[in-house]
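We emphasize that the prediction below concerns an isolated chain of 539 residues; any contacts that depend on oligomerization or on bound cofactors are therefore not represented. The input was used exactly as deposited, without trimming of termini.
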Amino acid sequence: MPPEIPPIVLPMIAGLLGIGLSIALTPFVRHYSLRLGLVDYPDRRRKLHLQPVAKCGGIVLLATLLISVLLAFLIFPGQSIHLVQQSSQAVSLGLGAVAITLLGLIDDRYGLLGRQKLVAQVLICLGIISFGFSIDTVQIFGVPIDLGLIAWPVTLVWLLLCINSVNLIDGADGMCSTVGAIAFAAVAVISSFTGNHMEAIISASLAGALVGFLFFNLPPASVFLGDNGSMLIGLFLGVLTMRAWFSKDSSMSITIPLVLMAIPLFDSAMAVVRRKLTGRSVFTVDRGHLHHHLIRRGFQDRALVGMIALFSSVTACGAVAGVMLGSDWISLATMFFAIGSLVVSKLFGFAEFKLLYKRAEQSLTSLFMTAEQARSQVHQQVVQLQGTRNWDLMWQSLVEFADKHSLSRVQMDLNMPWLHEGFHAQWNKRELPESSERWVLKFPLMLQGEHYGVLEFIGKQQESETLLTLAQLTELLDSLHSQLEAFVGDFKENNTNPDSLDDSFEHQLGNRKSVENLSFLQDSAAAVTNRVTGAVDFP
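Result of the prediction step, given as a token string:
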């Protein structure tokens, strides 16, 4: 770059152009998105906005990026050498960006299955990787590692993680845009510092575009990013962190991209832990993400965005400081500080770490037991994943039944996103009966055709005694049915604010503490279902 033009000037111009163009383009794109039906409709369950809102963030960002970068080079035509030098990669990245935006638009307009989106994402990412966007060498605390044959798979996994983790945090007005703007600004600074000028210009333009978009996306939002916007942000973050990290002499550490993406990746990791360790599908919808927890702690609307911006800024500053000072430890320290603050304060991640701890404790303890101890040992795990309602008494009634009838396992998993409630509990003996000697009973919990939990029981086949146990179990479940069904059904019908239900529900529970009234608590418990259905497997 000519000495009379400081390296930071062109990215700054691209960023300012990005802000102005985004502010100018968003109303225009929003208008036509509404006319074409590219909108997000409220459903009174997960989508609580009052009227249809346009989902066109990807279109705005892509158009803003293209125009702002071209204008920046027109203002300083002598700097177009950077674009010419990387023309083939710029074209492949541009085509990939268009493809991921189109994928998001199709999903926003018609809806796609998770596996369909994943296959399309893999194909798009492989196309980009084939033009040289791959991680060939990494450094871990100064030790270089040549990835060789696994370079493409590692790059593919990284890009998919970025795309989907950013997509997952797009659950509250302004949240994803804020995280993206801060991350792109940090990438622009890092790229300028390391001499990766093209990456700095693109990153600054995207940061500016998101700042301009936030004028319309902050709560209450009049336009959403949609999948077309969030997946585009994720793709560019994946590629640009990789480029800022690996270009030239590959002197940057693997920690920098991880720290920059720490908040989205942590949110996604906790979602996988939460769902896998409770036996749910990873595609299950719940209200256990970072923004859901912050909302329940009182951070509403712009206060929520402010908290997200704070944690994102901590990790972004840590990444920048780590690069400029040449220290991985600085970057890692800021990342662990941000994540540790969330977990220790119980703002987010505490329940998931508790699940991990319990699972690890169970596995390690079993290594030091005799066979006889293992047969008699009983393990119990109870985790309130979301919400504040007291499900313990209901759970204890099921545990007492399991213990009394010598069952081997009982598990209760509740997932009620519209009530902001999630609960997981498991009681089991260390050694289950052989598969040929056990019976398994699963009850999917349903209300008005909607699944929101499951009860599972495992016992040893004991001829006629098993049938008697099942008959008594059916009687228990029937007694637990009506009151919770009425409670949950009332909320679904009237769309009551779940917070307003807490006091009345807990008041009902509080008035029935005596043993003789325990049946009420049991009535509340298994009413998790409008219609108990299930499958019983006998040897």
